[in-house]
Request: fold
Amino acid sequence: MIDLYSAATPNGHKVSIALEEMALPYELHVLDLQKGVQKEPWFLALNPNGRIPAIVDRAEDNFAVFESGAILVYLAEKTGQLMPRDVKGRSQVMQWLMFQMGGVGPMMGQANVFYRYFPEKIQPAIDRYQGESRRLFTVLDARLKEHEYLAGDYSIADIANWAWVRIHKWSGVSVEELPHLQRWLAAIGSRPAVQKGILMPASARDLEKASEQDAQKFAEQVRSMLETGQSRA
Ligand SMILES: N[C@@H](CCC(=O)N[C@@H](CS)C(=O)NCC(=O)O)C(=O)O
Reply:
């Protein structure tokens, strides 16, 4: 049994999607990020960085893993699923996983901060992070023009990138004129395990379809978290 400490965010959903795909039994513990539960000592003992997601593998002497990319690799290696074992195949998955961890996630995260949450509108910062996110989308699109998935068969690299790209509207980054990215977004989004994973936990509101008023309300809640120094993602 795996304990998953998470919330309804792209980094959290990467792990719940992978657990669903791998059919691993898990217990979900939802942390209230706005209350700062992720900074409490009991959670810092699992993740010294004080952010979700983190897992504890009860079957492995309560082994704890933090950082969503590291969790995905741990689960893939534990189960032998969603990542090949040969050196080159594994390297390809790692390359596209690192691309997400070092690129898509941080850039879209900062696009969200400056486009949605910051009290002042600093247009150069918004342009920088949205522009860089869009550039990364074109890299994904070019890869997906030649390949059905990012790295061989469907893998943890697809899950990691998909969980972020799917919230592109919230980040204010278009997927127009990126037909291969759109094809891949829809294909992965139609997988039953993915549909279940994004409900673990479900977002209080569908940000893609939220009214302007709801979007503002959500942005205000995150802004207050930013102001108390809890979050930058
Ligand atoms: N690099 C980390 C990022 C984790 C992260 O930024 N988590 C956010 C939610 S997506 C969080 O816990 N924010 C609350 C906070 O920073 O206090 C990972 O991929 O696991």
